[in-house]
Amino acid sequence: MSADSSAPDRIVIVGASLAGLSAAKTLRAEGYSGVLVLVGDEAHRPYDRPPLSKQVLRRDFGAETTLPQPADLDIVFRLGMAAARLDRTERAVILADGERLPYDRCLVATGTRARPWPNPAEAALDGVATLRTRDDSERLAQRLRDRPARVVLVGGGFISFEVASVCRELDIPVSVLVRDAVPLAGAVGAPLGGFMAEVARGAGVDLRLGASIARMEADPRGRLAALVLEDGGRIETDCLVVAIGAARNIAWLDGAALATDRNGLRCDRFCRALGADGLPAGGIFAAGDVAHWPNPHDGDALVAVEHWGNAVAQGRTAARNMLAPGPDAMVAHDHLADFWSQQFGLTIKLVGLTAGADSFAVVRGSMAERRFLAVFGKAGRTVAAASVDSARWLPAYRAAILQGAPFPPLIGGLDAPRRIETQVLEDAAR
Fold it and tell me: Does the residue 171 lie in any domain?
């Protein structure tokens, strides 16, 4: 088979995680009965990642967070073997051991990996870790069980704050080093980031803003012993978690003439991967964290979203479009980004994306009570809403975002502040 309008007989999904499994389930549910191959560089079957930085570290349950899958999916697994190259001419995925997997359709769902510490010698020290995979979580859980004198996290994102929260629950001293002036600002905006900074400090976290590591010190056996900061400060620790972001797994696509950059693999609204020429690359689709796609809720601005819900929804959309008889039968990916986090006894939920927001207002509850709902505006429209232990109103604001309602919408209500105060966000381009 060579024409994309023909029904596929063989589909290869590269990436054995949430987006890949979601696509596989959808393919079978939509009636696809051909060969279905799922490639993963880890030895484990697809598993759930959010618990790795929370429940697994607390030992609420083990790291075997395998995602459920029907017994009749009839998947050919190629696990523990990374994809090394994509041959678009011959329509084949080449694995690291040289095996060639021919495809009629290929879904790229290779996700991201934890960005390593930039100094390789320091990154290799015993006691320096990242947290992305099941194996990472198991190793870190064991270190926490051994009760280190102090855990240090470097990075101002959710992984840092979630692990810090677990450390405090376990009564382990913890320091968080954040290069920026406000943590979490990229995900939830500066006002909420500042709020979470105070929550963390109130829980006993040694939070240092505007801080960075100058060098690491090791003991004679190659184990981390201390950190020397740029300001001259020194922290003794034998457990450092590097949480400085994620890198998208696109290196294996080098030479395939696809539209890739640090944001991932560019795809159109139908999840079709684009070639370097900007046109759909025949038979190739993208979904999940690796995909760089046009957001219909923000004028088709390109986004790369590392959220659980998007991975599921985009995997489903890609699967349906892989089976479509032609472009006219394809459906657009129309997921409104959302995510949640638990830390320091609070549940944070957010719908929409705060990037580029120019205004912010608390419209239910109050920050002082640590129970509120806040909205973000951009050019007079409501573009995102976040709740802290107050998710009851979130569905209404999801609808307002989808409708492009004015900012701030839904004024009034029993638990609304008497006066809505809008903050102008200085860095609308962050």
Answer: yes
